[in-house]
Design a protein that fits this description.
Strand content of chain B: 25-35%
Number of helices of chain A: 1
Largest interface: A-B, 42 and 37 residues
Largest sheet of chain B: 7 strands, mixed
Number of helices of chain B: 9
Structural class of chain A: mainly beta
Oligomer: heterodimer
Shape of chain B: globular
Radius of gyration of chain A: 14 Å
Distance between the termini of chain B: 37 Å
Radius of gyration of chain B: 21 Å
Largest sheet of chain A: 5 strands, mixed
Order of helices and strands of chain A: EEHEEEEEE
Number of strands of chain A: 8
Shape of chain A: globular
Structural class of chain B: alpha/beta
Helix content of chain A: under 10%
Distance between the termini of chain A: 29 Å
């Protein structure tokens, strides 16, 4: 993970380290921190691909407002990953297009 | 799933203004519910590593993230009067029933019935148009602060900062604190918009500030690999040769605009006010909007400093408590306005004063 090692003012208190997957690949992150942040720390930049123009989208506003970081999390599309806390074992996937809403909710 | 919670005072937004409104109202004895969309309260305060200016009453000399702790301690000291619900977004207001709707996480919905509400929803960042501005690596300045100052994640290797207002300058300095290189700061205006002391700090670090320059293009196939900047003339037309900047993050600090959806939904009387950076609700000197049960505070009432947001929060919380029939210290109201006037005094406050006089009403008809 690409974390700040030394800071003149701030001290970072991370929670429990957990494992999750991104497009099938195993990654590590901190429980309770936003999914988007954990992905960024793992050098992932592209979170979804737009429906029409197939443009890559990633982190942008970090306050759950812009919809740039929508991803499929545990089968549920359009999850605002910048404000959704990471949990152990989460299955995070790049969202292609609008996403398919599962018929049965998780 | 048809859950409705009831509260005396709903505060929408747990940032600088919202926390002060909650603390003030709870201090007068009101039961308050604060709804915060982020995973923790504090809003923009928690991302600020610099010491605040302004007045000692608004914690001048204290670093922003510590001010958030002070406010949360104040709230904690009031016992169980304030219920702060994080990771929850107020998604709508239905004026016919006087009901707010809220969403916790992504899939738990409920209603909130509140006697009074303070809406302190803050602001959202602006973006300017240029080719490839949608590529991953173009980040809002607030988002960059969240990554590095809240979660300790390195935003990139080399950053182009767009905008030399206070946010652009402060975030540039914070990026250096986090060990990230700044390629340059570009600013379309002929002079620096932020405080001189912030600009001096980054100039001392040898970071170039290009005035009368703008970004004309982001370079990259899938993610940002660079940017092109160019000089502007007095009429903001491109002149000179485009120059390539090597960077993997383009940080946008080109201003904020108030978050006002709930006021529109409530039917509050609104006005476009360029000095306050967007549409804002009219308000009386108690911060009450034209809706008799809704107050406004902080950046949602017009983009300003966090110090002013905190005082506005106090005024709104005080006034909502008074409207709920609680005993309040009348002299506090006067004192808060003295503090606000002080923060807005002088040349620095000229723009704000010009904006506020357009939307401040003498009072609302009963």
């Amino acid at each position: 993970m690409e974390l700040i090692q030394k800071h003149p003012i701030l001290e970072f208190h991370h929670g429990k380290e957990v494992t999750f997957t991104f497009d099938g690949k195993e990654m590590k992150g901190f429980e309770g921190e936003p999914i988007a942040v954990a992905l960024h720390a793992n050098d992932v930049r592209i979170y979804r691909v737009t429906p029409e123009m197939k443009r890559p989208r990633g982190f942008f506003c970090a306050i759950g407002k812009c919809s740039s970081c929508f991803m499929v999390v545990d089968g549920v599309p359009n999850v605002r990953t910048c404000v959704t806390p990471l949990e152990a074992g989460m299955k995070v996937e790049t969202q292609h297009g609008k996403g398919q809403v599962p018929l049965e909710a998780k | 799933m048809k859950k409705t919670i009831e509260t005396d005072l709903l505060v929408v937004g747990g940032g600088a203004a919202g926390l002060c409104a909650a603390a003030e109202a709870a201090g007068a004895g009101v039961k308050v519910t604060v709804i915060e969309s982020d995973l923790h309260p504090g809003g923009q305060l928690v991302k600020q590593t610099h010491k605040f200016f302004g007045s000692k009453d608004e914690y001048a000399g204290t670093r922003g993230y510590k001010i958030a702790d002070i406010l949360l301690d104040e709230i904690k000291s009031l016992g169980d009067k304030v219920d702060i619900r994080t990771n929850t977004t107020v998604t709508g207001y239905y004026p016919e029933e006087g009901i707010f709707t809220a969403m916790k996480g992504e899939d738990e919905y409920y209603r909130i019935k509140a006697k009074k509400a303070v809406i302190a929803t803050g602001a959202q960042e602006r973006l300017i148009p240029f080719p490839n501005n949608d590529l991953p690596g173009v980040y809002g300045a607030g988002a960059v602060q969240t990554l590095m100052n809240v979660y300790g994640v390195v935003p990139g290797k080399k950053v182009l900062m767009v905008g030399a207002g206070n946010i652009g300058l402060i975030v540039s300095y914070q990026l250096r604190q986090a060990g990230v290189e700044i390629a340059a700061v570009v600013e379309a205006m002929p002079k620096i918009g932020g405080y001189w002391v912030h600009a001096a700090k980054i100039r001392r670090l040898g970071i170039p500030i290009f005035l009368r320059h703008t970004i004309v293009e982001a370079i990259g196939d899938k993610v940002i690999e660079g940017a092109v900047i160019q000089e502007l003339d007095d009429k903001f037309q491109l002149i000179g040769e485009p120059r390539k900047i090597d960077c993997d993050v383009i940080c946008m600090a080109v201003g904020l605009t108030p978050t006002t959806e709930l006021f529109w939904q409530a039917g509050a009387k609104m006005q476009y006010c360029p000095q306050l950076c967007g549409h804002v609700p009219f308000r009386d000197n108690t911060m009450r909007t034209s809706h008799p049960d809704i107050w406004v505070a902080g950046d949602a009432s017009g983009i300003e400093e966090a110090s002013a947001a905190m005082v506005e929060g106090r005024i709104a919380g005080f006034s909502a408590a008074k409207a709920l029939g609680c005993k309040v210290k009348e002299e506090s109201f006067k004192e808060y306005w003295t503090r606000l006037d002080h923060l807005r005094a002088g040349e620095v406050g000229e723009k704000i004063r010009g904006g506020i006089c357009q939307v401040l009403v003498d009072g609302w008809e009963a």
